[in-house]
Specification:
The structure holds 4 protein chains of 4 kinds.
Chain A: E1 2-7, E2 20-24, H1 28-38, H2 42-47, E3 50-54, E4 57-59, E5 72-77
Parallel strand pairs in A: 1-5
Antiparallel strand pairs in A: 1-2, 3-4, 3-5
Chain B: E1 2-4, H1 9-18, E2 22-25, H2 31-36, E3 44-47, H3 52-55, E4 57-59, E5 63-67, H4 72-77, H5 79-84, H6 86-92, H7 98-101, H8 106-111, H9 119-125, E6 129-134, E7 137-142, E8 147-149, E9 152-153, E10 160-167, E11 173-180, E12 191-199, E13 205-213, E14 220-221, H10 223-229, H11 236-249, H12 260-282, H13 285-288
Parallel strand pairs in B: 1-3, 2-3
Antiparallel strand pairs in B: 4-5, 5-10, 6-7, 6-10, 8-9, 11-12, 12-13, 13-14
Chain C: E1 4-10, E2 13-19, H1 25-32, E3 51-54, E4 57-60, E5 73-75, H2 88-95, H3 105-118, H4 124-130, H5 142-162
Parallel strand pairs in C: 1-5
Antiparallel strand pairs in C: 1-2, 3-4, 3-5
Helix pairs in contact in C: 2-5
The chains are: A alpha+beta, B alpha+beta, C alpha+beta, D alpha+beta.
Chain lengths: ~80, ~290, ~160, ~750
């Protein structure tokens, strides 16, 4: 599945500051693998302490979350609470 | 630790003299937390609250006798006392919560010798006397002479305060007490100001006592404020003079509850306000009727 | 260590317990008598969670030696309801959602009962000052104060109709 | 007062939205509810903790021999009794916080623990443990931590997120940066630019129940722990981690929890009690004193914050820059990160940059506290917005409405926001009578908004139908604010039975599926969804049983208002509706007991916005601030139980007001806390507050079957700036340092007076 990836600004080191990139994968884990191949180091940055927002849904543990073609995937820092 | 509850002053004196680590146990609102926080445990606690004299509040022709262990809740509920000493009773009502009020007492508040205690400034302003019992019998001193520094008193080993004596105030006389705390309740005074004012028939100040708490190791009488009031109407410049004198007389420290500058400034403000309140009360018609 | 034998009345029933000379009434009620409705929040008389009545006086039981209870009449939150019937304060606390975590609730109920005995029709300000010795960190006090006032109304209405 | 967005489903609810008497209430008003310290086991020992008197020291040696020989002592443990833990371990900080190894990092840090027959014996033995320390220079403030020559607390700490990567250790644990747009261009476009600095002190969650637990290790090594926590599954895993045990060797039974507010999302005593019990072969009870709670458990972080805003003269915020430094106590924490995620989140700001540092100092390790970090960023943002409104001559409400984020606007982190109710909350306050009520002398009014994102996470629920037609709903979420009542209401709505016939309980770690901590305002949202799922599975089962009883096809059976109703085209003879009670009563004959589960990872937690309005009266001669009126509007999505939504809002306000006015940790120059008690750590008392008018706004969250948004946390976010703005309105003074105590307010008033006289 080809998806559009948006990185929150704290995650853009490995892309040299680029905020929006393309990637593909059947689920978010596979997508991260693909992004790692494109941007070495990005995989590590996205694997821990990071959530995704897809179609307005905040997903805290997204590894196996299935992706639809053309989805917009936002990687954001994991939140917490009290 | 042993607990004893004597019913007479003599028994209490005996018990306190019997062991070196005997302690007076009255409200214990400070004593128990101190022991819990690791201070050495006394070997015997001598509960004074079963001695009638220590809990009685008595009105006589000359004035009032108030037991040193009488709960401040009882003091606050005593209408006759409140009518004559509204400020002292207000101060009594400010110590801690209702729960604490059922335990706290003038004796404990004074003998604990905290510079921030609420009732000592009012006891001082009203020239209260403390009757003290001990191995050598009883003696009577001014309440002002009991505390000598933070946690220190002029009581000798084995002595305890039995009761307080208050002379009935002259005509056109009233007192007031104000304190500053960050919270409305359950707090320790950052500054306290007790004032007693007597007016003459023309509404000028005939006599004045201004006493501050929490701004020095012990209660401070502000002689300059008192002098500035005598013979003048308690208003305008006289009040400004009180404010300045009280601020000048304050000799506080910086601590977790306030700063030197704050305590000085607010000591002046509270003294001025307390003078105004006491004077207003002194001018109330019913206070003029007294012999 | 010699323990002190205390005979007293607790929640209307004769009671006896053994305690250490230095033990507080709070610890004795909880550990010797099993009345764990009496809570410890601070141990210094600053939170009111351990409020009980002793001989008609509202006290922080953490500031009272258990030995002092000899011959006294102690009541705790466990004694507020009569049989199946809750005290109006308990009922109003439930209906008014005056509790969240509930740890301060026993102390508030005992203190509120003491207030209403002394002052059956308190104003909001009187309720707030009378309960200032009881800390609640959950509710912001709003629903507690409302529930105490509702209980006062309920008690007064009951007293009116009953006589 | 409830304001409800047009929501066709809402009015149709029978039980959701009603004010059920909480199922756990009776036990709590009669004193029967069991909190952690209320449990006593036969043969139980009492534990006491040896704590460091130093804020920063190396542990040279610990001699326990004298303590071990004391009367009644059954076990003494130190850090050496636990497996060593590598600094790279995910839970390293928690592990070495619970019991120090080579160094102590704050006054009160646990270094050893003792179990003895009585508490007095345990305390005496704890005092007899001889610890030799080599005192080190204590680092107590953010400035001290960041000084060039600052002693480094943790030799392994390399700043995460540093560019270029950090090579030398420092007290800066991490750096977080967010940005969007073009900051320089944004400020160039601004007609008014204002830059301000803020500072705060650590504050404590202040739950009334001190931490407590009882641990009992059996001969087989299996350990049961009864404790008060916000998440007993987390207690299990954390305890196991520290002890190097398998998770399943431990069962954790949740006691009633006497307040948490984030402070009971982590643990302190449980592994110590388990280790002592394991050594002694007896149950061990441990209860903290209030002083221990203050000195050794989670204050909230404090911060230094610098913000710079640029606005056009029409009130549009066009640029904003923030520099945040959060002090998280002795170990790394997330204060700065969460501050960065919240500082600009309420407003649509096209050009922005945030840099946030998390630093360590020699004070107790911070823990979460209700909307962690957000009250402090709101303090900065909301007071500066007030200044902008004043400068531009725009009403503070209009300025916020103009810039408020709405659905589709990008979050600070880039994603478009789902449906949120910020504008609705602003409008709710604007139309409230409080907004236009007259003010008295020395009074002022402050407006402030707040935001919290809320989280989802994992939850499990089991529904069991009893033979009399009542239901038991078991969840794994400790009930910290009335969640059992909301679970009962949602289950009642789904099953179609009276909520009084539902008994909601919190199951232990062996009685219900894994459930994350009750935090992030997630219980009614996420665990509520698990309950709904379990109930819907139950309804499928009930329809099947009804089909059996009616000799019909399950597809012809609907579930309507607690009854199985035949809707097929066939002969309806003998197919009268069957109530849940009838089906439950015949369960043995139709296939066995009726039980259903719901377990899920809840996606789509919706953020909650809130707007507060506060009136204060300031004594200009003493600086004492009184709160005279308070109104708070908050988007609850859908209020399942309005009373407890209001309670969450009111509680948040009270805590925020305490934080604003008087609460603070006070340390002496050696880092020893000077106010570890409720006398000098001043949480508000009843007479400090007015009634708090809680206005529930309902903009349903599309990701929850009933539209729930978590409400537990957002309420604490706006009070600090609301109070600050009200003080400014009353006195003309802007106070940017917490707490706004009488001393600080009078200083500001006096300084302003001097400036006025001088000018």
């Amino acid at each position: 599945m080809a998806v559009r990836v948006h990185l929150s600004s704290n995650l853009r080191g490995p892309t040299g500051g680029v905020a929006e990139i393309e990637g593909s994968g059947a689920n978010v884990g596979a997508l991260i693998g693909d992004l790692e191949r494109q941007y070495p180091g990005l995989g590590d940055a996205l694997r821990s302490g990071v959530s995704v927002v897809i179609d307005g849904l905040l997903i805290a543990h997204p590894q196996y979350y299935r992706l639809a073609d053309g989805a917009q995937v936002f990687f954001v820092p994991q939140s917490a609470g009290g | 630790m042993r607990y004893e509850s004597p019913t007479t002053v003599a028994e209490a004196v005996e018990l306190l003299g019997s062991e070196p680590h005997a302690r007076v146990y009255a409200g214990a609102t400070d004593l128990i937390p101190q022991i819990r926080s690791g201070r050495p445990e006394p070997t015997v606690m001598v509960d004074l609250k079963h001695i009638d004299r220590l809990c009685a509040i008595t009105s006589t022709a000359a004035g009032f006798t108030v037991g040193a262990a009488a709960p401040t809740a009882d003091i606050c509920a005593d209408g006759a006392l409140a009518a004559e000493f509204p400020g002292l009773v207000e101060a009594s009502g400010l110590i801690g919560s209702d729960q604490i009020q059922n335990r706290s007492s003038w004796g404990g508040n004074l003998a604990n010798a905290s510079p921030a205690a609420d009732t000592p400034p009012s006891l001082v302003a009203n020239c209260a006397r403390a009757v003290i019992a001990g191995p050598d019998g009883e003696r009577t001193v001014l309440a002002a002479e009991v505390a000598t520094g933070p946690g220190r008193t002029s009581l000798t080993p084995g002595e305890f305060i039995v009761e307080f004596e208050l002379d009935r105030p002259p005509a056109r006389t009233a007192d007031a007490y104000l304190r500053l705390t960050p919270r409305t309740e359950m707090d320790i005074a950052v500054v306290g100001a007790a004032v007693r004012i007597s007016l003459d028939a023309q509404g000028r100040v005939a006599d004045a006592a201004v006493a501050l708490g929490a701004v020095a190791p012990t209660v401070v009488r502000v002689a300059d404020a008192e002098a500035a009031l005598i013979g003048r109407e308690p208003a305008g410049d006289a009040l400004a003079a009180v404010e300045a004198a009280a601020a000048a007389a304050a000799d506080p420290i910086d601590d977790k509850r306030g700063t030197v500058a704050y305590r000085r400034q607010v000591a002046g403000v509270l003294a001025r306000r307390a003078v105004a309140t006491a004077a207003e009360r002194a001018a109330e018609p019913q206070r003029g009727d007294r012999p | 260590m010699t323990r002190v034998h205390v005979t007293c009345t607790i929640n209307g029933d004769p009671a006896e317990f053994l305690c250490d000379g230095g033990q507080t009434l709070l610890d004795a009620l909880r550990d010797e008598v099993g009345l764990t409705g009496v809570k410890e929040g601070c141990g210094t008389g600053d939170c009111g969670a351990c409020s009980v009545m002793m001989d008609g006086r509202l006290l922080c039981s953490c500031l009272v030696l258990a030995a002092e209870a000899e011959g006294s009449d102690v009541s705790t939150v466990e004694g507020m309801a009569s049989g199946d019937e809750l005290h109006p304060l308990q009922q109003c606390f439930l209906e008014g959602a005056a509790l969240q975590c509930g740890i301060c609730t026993p102390g508030f109920l005992v203190a509120a009962e003491a207030l209403l005995e002394r002052n059956p029709d308190p104003t909001e300000t009187e309720v707030r000052y009378a309960l200032a010795g009881n800390l609640c960190r959950c509710t912001g006090y709003d629903k507690i104060v409302r529930s105490v006032m509702a209980a006062a109304r309920s008690i007064n209405a009951g007293a009116g109709s009953g006589h | 007062m409830t304001i409800t967005e047009a929501n066709p489903g809402y009015k149709g609810y029978k039980y959701v939205g009603t004010r059920l008497i909480r199922p756990d209430g009776l036990e709590k008003v009669t004193g029967k509810a069991r909190f952690a310290a209320d449990l006593n086991l036969a043969g139980q020992l009492h534990g006491a903790v040896v704590r460091s008197p130093h804020a920063h020291a190396r542990i040279v040696s610990i001699d326990t021999s004298r303590a071990e020989a004391m009367p009644g002592v059954k076990s003494v443990i130190t850090g050496d009794d636990f497996p060593s833990v590598d600094p790279g371990h995910r839970q390293y900080d928690m592990c070495v916080n619970i019991i120090a190894r080579d160094k102590v990092f704050y006054e009160g840090h646990a270094v050893a623990a003792v179990a003895a027959s009585t508490l007095e014996q345990a305390r005496a033995a704890a005092a007899a443990v001889e610890v030799e320390y080599e005192a080190l220079q204590a680092v107590l403030t953010i400035d001290e931590a960041m000084a060039d020559d600052a002693p480094v607390l943790h030799s392994h700490m390399l700043t995460r997120g540093a560019e270029p990567p950090a090579e030398a250790p420092s007290n800066v644990a991490s750096v977080t940066r967010f940005s969007g747009g073009d900051l320089e261009a944004g400020f160039a476009e601004a007609d008014f630019v204002v830059e301000r600095e803020f500072s705060t002190k650590p504050v404590h969650q202040g739950y009334i129940e001190p931490h407590a637990c009882v641990a009992d290790t059996g001969q087989d090594g299996h350990t049961t722990i009864w404790c008060s926590s916000q998440g007993h599954f987390n207690v299990r895993s954390s305890t196991a981690t520290l002890l190097g045990w398998e998770n399943t060797r431990i069962k954790v039974v949740p006691a009633e929890i006497g307040g948490g507010f984030g402070g009971k999302t982590t643990i302190y005593l449980e592994p110590l009690a388990a280790a002592l019990s394991s050594q002694a072969g007896r149950p061990v009870k441990m209860v903290m004193t209030r002083s221990e709670v203050f000195r050794a458990t989670g204050p909230a972080p404090c911060a230094k914050i610098r913000v710079k805003f640029g606005a056009r003269s029409d009130g549009a915020i066009v640029a904003a820059d923030a520099h945040l430094i959060y002090s998280n106590g002795a170990y790394q924490g997330a204060g700065g990160m969460l501050g960065a995620m919240t500082v600009f989140e309420s407003y649509k700001i096209p050009n922005f940059a945030v840099e946030a540092l998390d630093v360590v100092v020699n004070t107790a390790r911070s823990a979460a506290y209700r909307a962690p970090a957000a009250p402090l960023t709101a303090f900065a943002t909301e007071t500066v917005l007030d200044e902008i409104a004043e400068e531009l001559g725009i009403d503070a409400m209009d300025l916020r409405l103009k810039n408020a984020v709405k659905e589709g606007d990008p979050s600070t982190m880039g994603f478009p926001l789902a449906r949120v109710g910020f504008a609705e909350c602003l409008e709710a306050i604007r139309s409230h009578p409080h907004f236009s009520a007259p003010l008295g002398p020395n009074q002022g009014r402050g407006l402030a908004a707040g935001y919290w994102f809320n989280i989802g996470e994992s939850s499990s629920a089991i529904v069991n139908l009893n033979e009399d037609g009542t239901a038991t709903v078991v969840t794994g979420s400790p009930d910290i604010g009335g969640s059992r009542a909301s679970m009962a209401l949602m289950a009642a709505e789904e099953l179609g039975i009276d909520p009084h016939d539902i008994r909601p309980v919190v199951g232990d770690t062996e009685a219900v599926g894994f459930t994350d901590i009750t935090e992030g305002s997630r219980a009614t949202f996420a665990t509520g969804r698990a309950v709904v799922e379990a109930c819907r599975n139950m309804v499928i089962e009930l329809r099947g049983r009804a089909a059996t009883m009616m000799e019909a096809e399950v597809g012809d059976i609907d579930w309507v208002d607690g009854h199985a109703v035949y809707t097929g085209d066939g002969d309806s003879e003998g197919k009268e509706p069957l109530s849940l009670a009838v089906i439950a009563g015949k369960a043995k004959r139709t296939g066995g007991p009726l039980t259903a589960t719901g377990s899920l990872e809840a996606h789509g937690a919706g953020p909650s916005f809130t707007v507060h309005l506060c009136d204060v009266e300031v004594d200009p001669e003493t600086g004492v601030v009184s709160i005279v009126r308070y109104t708070a509007a908050q988007d609850a999505g859908t209020a399942i139980h309005p009373s407890y939504v209001e309670g969450q809002i009111q509680g948040g306000v009270a805590q925020g007001v305490g934080w604003a006015l008087n609460e603070e940790y006070i340390y002496d120059s050696d880092g020893v806390m000077e106010n570890p008690g409720f006398l000098d750590y001043r949480v508000p008392v009843a007479s400090d507050l007015p009634m708090i008018d809680a206005v529930i706004v309902e903009v349903p969250n599309p990701a929850h079957p009933y539209g729930v948004r978590g409400v537990g946390e957002a309420g604490i976010v706006p009070p600090i700036p609301a109070v600050a703005n009200a003080i400014h309105s009353a006195t003309g003074c802007r106070i940017r340092d917490l707490p706004m105590s009488p001393v600080r307010v009078l200083e500001a008033i006096t300084a302003a007076g001097a400036r006025a006289n001088g000018g």
